[in-house]
User: Fold 7-cyano-7-deazaguanine synthase from Desulfosarcina widdelii.
Amino acid sequence: MKLSDLHVRKNGDLARVVATVHFEEKNEPAREIFIETEATFADDLAAHPHAFTVGCLIPALYFGERRLILEEAICPRLKEGLETVMAIMHHWTAGAFRPLTLEAPLLKNVLYADRTRRAAIFLSGGMDSLAALKLLKDNYAPSHPAYPNDALLVHGFDIGGVFERGAKYHVFERAKAAMAPVAADAGLTLVPVYTNIRHLCDDRDLWLNQFFGAVLAAVAHALAPRIDLAWLASSYDIPHLHPCGSHPLLDPEYGSHDLTIRHRDAGLSRMEKLRIVAGWETAFQNFRVCLANVPDKLNCGRCEKCVRTMLELEALGLLDKTRAFADDAVDPAWLDAFRITIRVREPFYEELIAPLRRRGRNDLAEKIEKKLTERD
Assistant:
């Protein structure tokens, strides 16, 4: 795989950084990938080789490319990190992902030494990122250099990530509207970012198990003229770690000397995170966990992610305290629409059984127990 023609260009009211991807082993035409943001932040967006190297590495491994080549120089720290990432991927895939050769000159100097930069956090609107922001808000003074000044909300993941489902910009606008008061309450600037890097390979398992953390890191590198630290919330806690696109072994390795990436809060369970978010009223009334992207609601209340979150809130006695869901109680029949024994979801449900029984919801506890016995 070769990356070429890295440049910045205008795209209507947006500023876009672009690279062309040429496949060497895969019989496919060259593809253009991009990362873009609003013109307000144009001076902080760079056609950084780090962004596209990180963003393309996992698809290159997936397609069996033997090398990743570019003419622009990359940080030796990043090169070492990506070699570690490739070793992890080789192990996770039982040898299916063979490490490739990174062919790029190495930077001899530090970048952005003459710029005052800031910390940022990826803010999807889900419980993981909101809990991370609440803890930063509570534990760091706004004057601390690690306190985030920016909240990065990315289009091209759960919204606009699956090509066949369309871009759904109206859903993204709704997510922006929900996160705007949250960011404002924490004193952050909300920075919307758009990317099509996921479309290099639309395989869902690859995205979830190996890829999405790298694309978050790619976005951060594209904004490296503005930020020097990116906070990334954990997806799973330590007892339930497994191969995942965002992982405490992976995420820091996508950083460079100029950009630190921190994976945080792997010591917290999902229920602990919900309690943290419930203690922040602005976030608790505006969270967004839904993956269905329905036209008229922030959270549909019926997809697996919504129902699981509602069950968690029901177990904590908090479901009727938020307007993020239209319903104040969960019907056991809603669980019939999906399986709960895929993608390491079982622990999320297992920890709900006892607190639901304590709250007198034996019907829900029994339904979960029954669903946990279902296997392919």
